[in-house]
Specification:
Radius of gyration: 13 Å
Oligomer: single chain
Strand content: 35-45%
Mean pLDDT: 92
Helix content: 10-25%
Number of helices: 2
């Protein structure tokens, strides 16, 4: 893993983020936008719910979050039963997380 990188998990159509990583990168943010750029996955924070995107719902008492986005993943060739860990890093230019090559298999 690159310095400053961490893992998110794609499982059952959802993007899972640990509580620690949520607090570090998305504290107080209730939603994200997922974008495919070539084979990269961009995960951008959404400050206003009216802007759209996927809600980051709390999934357990530890504070881990999940954004249910089966439509995004299906549209990008990821089946509902596919599971994978994706290394992401914060990209200040993009203003969000980027998983380089995360969608290259699809």
């Amino acid at each position: 893993m690159n310095a400053g990188g961490f893992m998110v998990r794609v499982s059952r159509g959802g993007l899972h983020v640990s509580a620690e990583d949520y607090e570090r990168y998305f504290q107080g943010i209730s939603g994200i936008i997922l974008i495919r750029r070539d084979s990269d996955l961009l995960i951008l924070p959404v400050r206003l719910a009216q802007a759209g995107g996927y809600l980051l719902k709390r999934k357990n008492l530890a504070g881990d979050r999940v954004a249910h986005a089966p439509d995004f993943f299906r549209a990008n060739g990821v089946r509902d039963d596919d599971e994978q860990d994706i290394e992401v890093i914060w990209d200040a230019v993009e203003g969000g997380l980027i998983g380089r090559g995360a969608l290259s298999a699809y």
